[in-house]
Amino acid sequence: MAASASGVEMIAISMDGKVHRVYQGLSGTFAGLSYCCVDKRMLPGFFEKDLVAEAALKDRKLSLSLSGHLSRSELLEILETALLNMVAFPLPGSKADFFIEAKSNK
Q1: Which run of H or of E encompasses 15?
Q2: Are 100 and 14 in contact (CB under 8 A)?
């Protein structure tokens, strides 16, 4: 993953191939979040055991499956909280550098 020349990166949350929200964080935010999900099987700020059912990183996309029967709005709320805990903030209308493809593991 290459760092952005501006020192910031845009991270999109997508579900079913559609972008729902875009966040701006400092360079390394996506790498930090990916490490938490893939290597540690956790989301920043959440302590529920086994919340992260599956996580895989390929290029600039983190495929993330969360445990439970979560609605789209619940998934967005959880991921927004995790990104805010990683100091990434909503920036609507921006083009994403990285993607989080989220789903509920039903």
Answers
A1: strand 8-15
A2: yes
What pLDDT score does 5 carry? 67
**pTM of the entire structure?**
0.90
Query: What's the distance, Cα to Cα, between the start and end of the chain in Å?
Result: 31
Residue 48: CB partners within 8 Å, gap ≥ 6?
none
- Across 72-83, average pLDDT: 95
The span from the CA of 31 to the CA of 1, in Å, is 8
Residues forming a β-bridge with 66: 52, 104
DSSP 22-77: EEEEETTHHHHHHIIIIIS---TT---TT-EEEEEEETTEEEEEEES---HHHHHH
